[in-house]
Amino acid sequence: MRDPEVEARKLKLRFRAATARIERAQRRRSIAHHLLRAVPVLVVTLGLVVGGFMASPWAPVATVRHLLAFPNCASARLVGLAPARRGEPGYYSRHDRDDDGVACEPLIRWSNSGASFGDEGRRAASALTP
Predict the structure, then answer these.
(1) DSSP-H helix ranges across the chain
(2) How far apart are CA 40 and CA 35, in angstroms?
(3) Residue 109 CB partners (closer than 8 Å, separation 6+)
(4) Around Cβ 79, how many Cβ atoms within 10 Å?
(5) Half-sphere exposure of 41 toward its Cβ, with a 13 Å CA cutoff?
(6) What pLDDT, on the 0 to 100 scale, is given for residue 96?
(7) pTM, whole model, 2 decimals?
(8) Terminus-to-terminus CA distance in the chain, angstroms?
(9) Is the pLDDT confidence value at 81 over 90?
(10) Residues 6 or more apart whose Cβ sits within 8 Å of residue 115
């Protein structure tokens, strides 16, 4: 005669195994679904990035530095593109306050004793003196 408890345990194990197979299949379908939704977005993004680099008049490293200089003059100085002349990497018309073709110019600070250049101006002035 069969023991009902043993049969119940065997049946419970079979149901667990079947449930685990179903859950694994659902997870695989879910992952595949998310990947299929993400692939077109990634392809379009990659195409825009590659197209942007190909359309850029500068080398890829200079193009990246140009894009990093976009937010403001502090970031342009941080990546080493300030001051920038019109047509050079790092030049954005929004950074050129006086519209003279030079963006992110060194600041001139006026005091009672005359004009005072910022650190950049001091370095440039010291480079010009013999």
Answers:
(1) 4-55, 60-68, 73-78, 119-128
(2) 9
(3) 115, 116, 117, 118
(4) 16
(5) 5
(6) 92
(7) 0.51
(8) 110
(9) yes
(10) 108, 109
